[in-house]
Amino acid sequence: MIPKGKLLIIGGHEDKGPVPGENLNIDHKRKPKTRFEILGSLIPQASRGHQIIEIIASASSIPLEMEEIYIKSYKDEGFTHVGFINVENEQDTHNPDSLKRIQNAHAVFFTGGDQVRLLTLLGKTELLQAVIRKYNSDTNFIVAGTSAGAMALPETIIASGIIGAALYKEDLHIAAGFGLIQNVIIDTHFIRRGRFARLAHAVTIIPSCLGIGLEENTAVLITGGNHAACLGSGMVVIIDGSKIGITNIDTARDSIPVVVENLVVSILAEGSSYDIIERKFYLNKAKNV
Fold first, then answer.
1. Cα–Cα distances in Å, from 89 out to 11, 30, 120?
2. What mean pLDDT is predicted for residues 109-117?
3. What is the average pLDDT value for the chain, to the nearest integer?
4. Does residue 171 fall inside a structural domain?
5. Are 24 and 216 in contact (CB under 8 A)?
6. What is the pLDDT of residue 61?
7. Residue 254 above 90 pLDDT?
8. pLDDT tens-digit profile of 76-94?
9. I need a labelling partner for 39 at 20 to 30 A (CA). Which of 15, 169, 232, 281 fits?
10. Residues with Cβ < 8 Å from 113, sequence gap 6 or more?
11. What are phi and psi of 27, to 5 degrees?
């Protein structure tokens, strides 16, 4: 099934306006279109007054603080109907009021935190199924996630991984994600936290999955479950394992490091896009996404 909705996948630390103690990694050579460029891309300016955004901050250990930050950010950008769906236990995931709010929403936003915590609370629940159904059937619906909230969206996710001087097979743990998109693995805070090796490791383990590494204040907007357009001030690194040659990923154990040949790397920035199925790069929005 080709989903009718859109996915907005953000690399973390997107501009939310002034947040105490937060240091954005923004390219100051490029002037943002608006202060809330990525968050504002959820819904066009003209229709923001009556569009409903529901925020789920269950990935965070401080959900109430996250609620306050994001609600203020969206309201500052002109979104007047911003809600917060609280999910702390199994009972919350089949709350009839929450399910109805998903059905009526124009966008659902998953904040950052811990992707494993988010999956533990929401995986295979009625609430998640309501999000998936609406994403598959509603052309006006957007599912957005930032940081851990972005990493949880695909069918396959990085649950945890050690970043060291060499790759060791047991240092990376893969898990099942939300399943809103197949055949990709997402990593975030990609340049700031030096996560290239971690994503390359994941793609080497599962070469059928395309690796998408997003820098902070950077996003891809995915339409049709396939076409990924880059937004924001930073880069998106694509790692394609379909042409892998020599690798010892199946036999490496203990102190034997992983080696891999012929990973294909592409770098996207605003104005470029990528076809996930065909694994093709497009410059200057040459492909209609």
1. 27, 43, 9
2. 93
3. 88
4. yes
5. yes
6. 83
7. no
8. 878 888 999 999 999 999 9
9. 281
10. 57, 58, 59, 60, 61, 66, 147, 148, 149
11. -75, 110
Average pLDDT, stretch 260-276?
A: 97
Is position 289 within any domain? no
Confidence of residue 286 (pLDDT cuts 50, 70, 90): very low
The answer to whether residue 288 is domain-embedded is no
- pTM for the model stands at 0.89
CATH of the domain at 67: 3.40.50.880
Measured distance CA(166)–CA(120) in Å, rounded: 30
Give the strand pairing for 184-187 and 210-214.
Answer: parallel
Q: Is 159 within 8 Å of 116 (Cβ atoms)?
A: yes
Nearest to 184 by CA among 7, 37, 60, 1: 7
102 φ, ψ to 5°? -65, -45
Q: Is 168 exposed, middle or buried (0-12, 13-18, 19+ CB in 10 A)?
A: middle
Q: What is the tally of structural domains in the chain?
A: 1
Domain annotation covers residue 71 = yes
CA distance 212 to 235: 11
Give the pLDDT mean for 140-152: 95
Joined tokens for residue 154? 């695909």
Q: Are 268 and 260 in contact (CB under 8 A)?
A: no
Segment 205-233 mean pLDDT: 96
